Amino acid sequence: MFLILGPALNLIAGFFWRQDGSQGVTGGTLTALSTGCWLLGLIGIYGRLRPLSPRYVAVALAATVFGTVGGVTFAVQAIHEQMFDISHSVAVERVNDFPLATTLFWICGPLFPVALAAFGVLLARLRVAPLPVSILIVLGSLAFPLSRMTRQASIAHVADVLLLLPFLYLGIQELRTAKAAPSQAVHAQPSVQQPVSR
Fold it and tell me: What does the H/E/C string look like for the chain?
């Protein structure tokens, strides 16, 4: 369920962007909640993929967690921009005045789309999901930072849809697997672990 909620809330957040390009209080709040949901869903998937690629999953999961920290940081910044009535460009300039804080923005922040791209590659490499699912995740992860850097809502909507579609598929597959074997849900192998033909 969290695999669906994460990108769904992220898509909804894009419709609350302000005219100056800031996400604002509502958009920032939804983005923060979206990032948390996404993390929970990805932790579940990575846990099930760990036996197939333990080292890759260990690195990817760490990147995802720190990327989530960066995502929430940017979301809180968007909230503060509206709360304190400052523009996005001014907020970014002020961040650079505090070198330690820049690690949250310029190191952790980019890790989230990087982690999503790595997740898409992992699915393709392990052949545990249809190839179009992996491709959409990678394309969405590339469009995601582009939309946030340009502050263009139209690009953001495209990126968010590109990410919602594959995670919607994965989430539905996981829900079907859990429903088919409720008594063994904890120990059952998830649908994404089964190699698929292309």
Answer: CHHHHHHHHHHHHHHHCCCCCCCHHHHHHHHHHHHHHHHHHHHHHHHHHCCCCHHHHHHHHHHHHHHHHHHHHHHHHHHHHHHCCCCHHHHHHHHCCCCCCHHHHHHHHHHHHHHHHHHHHHHHHHCCCCHHHHHHHHHHHHHHHHHHHHCCHHHHHHHHHHHHHHHHHHHHHHHHHHHHCHHHCCCCCCHHHCCCCC
Q: Please name the amino acid found at residue 123.
A: L
- Length of the chain in terms of residues written: 198
The pLDDT tens digits for 122-160 are 999 999 999 999 999 999 999 999 888 888 888 899 999
pLDDT tens-place string over residues 27-61: 999 999 999 999 999 999 999 999 999 999 999 99
d(CA 16, CA 68): 21
Tokens of 80: 């503060």
